[in-house]
């Protein structure tokens, strides 16, 4: 009991103490998982993800450090670092006439309490001369329930500036349907848990109806965690064509993602 607790506390402190140095030393790496059109297999976008390449501990995955950073507020620094690296990547490719696709970035709910992130994002796209629709903003469904009004105002502001807002983890919380009624999102990202049970008849009914409802609302749909051809076929039969998942690509370092885009263009 007590010892376990102190071990956990110690691990958390270590993460907090090391994170800013890790960002400065470039140990916080930007990875991208491609998003594909399942009909053609063509890459139509990507999602920016984070990996921590620790000099002593090797690769640290986000589920180990993101929750800690969300509690302490350092997540703001990590997010900004990733946003900037995505904008640099897209900006330099655009300048060199290389193909680009939208790469979505995560906006942690901590940002909702900090008003400055909207200006920061607007400055970034200006500085690197890219149009805002190239960095869609993924906001987890749970963020919408916390300080709803605040978040809505900020998201509307960004949408007016040309950013697209994607509701991440759709279907993992209780409030999904309510929010769709009230909220103006451009895209919904269906949670992996939704399609893991695709063999179950009830699940199929729910997924089928969710897809048709979102299409009727005019909201774009992407599904994450697609791992089998059976899942992909079922989704396509029901009018959902965009996905990310191991069936297609794992997350990869951002430069590798760039190389894939060039290969695809040939």
| Mean pLDDT level | 90
Inertia-based shape:
globular
Q: Termini, distance in Å?
A: 59 Å
Report strand %: 15-25%
Run of helices and strands: HEEEHHEHEHHEHEHHEHEEH
Largest β sheet strand count, sense and barrel closure? 8 strands, mixed, barrel
DSSP helix fraction:
40-55%
Q: What is the rounded Rg?
A: 19 Å
Structural class: alpha/beta
Number of helices: 11
The number of E-state strands comes to: 10
Task: Please state the oligomeric state of the protein chains shown.
Answer: single chain
Spatial strand sequence of the major β-sheet: 1-2-4-5-6-7-8-9
Q: Point out poorly predicted stretches.
A: none
Q: How would you portray this structure in words?
A:
By secondary structure, this protein is of the alpha/beta class. It is about 50% helix and about 20% strand. Strands 1-2-4-5-6-7-8-9 form an eight-stranded mixed β-barrel, surrounded by five helices. Strand 4, helix 4 and strand 5 (about 135-140) form a beta-alpha-beta unit. Helix 3 packs parallel to helix 4. The protein starts with a helix and ends with a helix. About 30% of the residues are buried. The model has no long low-confidence stretch (mean pLDDT about 90).
